[in-house]
């Protein structure tokens, strides 16, 4: 008993700086990514598409948002290759640099009235660079924790980098809210640029943290034994193609649901005539609560098993969308707040907390970076990226009913549940090979 307690304490002390670095690093990355999402809905329709109607401008703006998702699979292959060949640490330094610089430069892009069509094209190129960074960052940050944690608590430790998503969304929303309040009517003109400039400071913080990290023990062993594979993506597809396909199916619902809850809700709020600040404040509160439910979900998956817990999350999404949109449609502030909190803290925190270990455990160490990154990002253009566009299109086609929106999420949840049943339970398996 004493030996077990000592080992656990030692593991916790060793993991603390790694977890801290992972959470701060992913928070910075997701701040950059979600900042674009928020401003794309609130500012870009008027800035880059002034000749279009409000709804058409929003759709075009969300199309530039989609560009980042198109880039994510390419980032997964590129940085997955580097992560499986050169190591997790050096690759994550590159991703934080790419994301930070791209975000900083977006703040300097002139509007359509100044440089015409070059404005949305330029911002789309920078958005593509953001997508490349996220495609490489997400899987790598997870592996920093997963490949160093104790096997009995892998789900708990691997879930911590996921906290960066709600915290990054929270910080981007707070930054936009503060600057909007400070700049007032000037926010759509120049105020929106300030949060993008702040990413320069975040680059420095991110680099300082990442450069102090050590390589994970599992990959260090691969490198010591010279077992690195020449083309990780080829080996991954050769030996893990079935697992990858099933994981992609299992992830359909979570990606679409999150970007419906986090991005489309701003569009839907405008449609309902809700106060913008009410929606943003509700998202902020929900993000803080989700930061607690994510590691809780990861810890529960260590006890009951990843597959069962993930499947239960899919079932929750089958029954959740109709009550969610019903609560929003009441336009009662307390019920709007409740709907948004439940969408983040209950559903998304549930799925998001178990996702890292559940996905990564299906790939061998030699190709785990590539496999995990592709599992998280390969279908993102069709699920996460298209979700706000599909939801907005459904809203335009059926302005008087939220049922088509709810059915869209329900169908994806059913598909995800079926795919989850085909995956293996590896909660306590040896993943060192």
What are the defining features of this structure?
single chain; 433 residues; mainly alpha; Growth Hormone, Chain: A; 80% helix; 0% strand; disordered N terminus
Short description:
With 433 residues, the protein is an all-alpha fold. Helices cover 80% and strands 0% of the residues. It has one domain: Growth Hormone, Chain: A (Up-down Bundle), CATH 1.20.1250.
The CATH homologous superfamily: MFS general substrate transporter like domains
**Classification by helices and strands:** mainly alpha
The largest sheet is: none
- Averaged pLDDT: 90
Q: What is the end-to-end distance?
A: 28 Å
**C-alpha Rg (nearest Å):** 21 Å
> Which range does the strand content fall in?
under 5%
| Tally of domains | 1
So what's the CATH class?
Mainly Alpha
Oligomer: single chain
CATH architecture verdict: Up-down Bundle
Any idea of the CATH topology?
Growth Hormone, Chain: A
Tally of strands:
0
Helix content: over 70%
Encode the helix/strand succession as letters. Answer: HHHHHHHHHHHHHHHHHHHH
Name the poorly predicted regions: 1-7
What shape does the CA trace take? globular
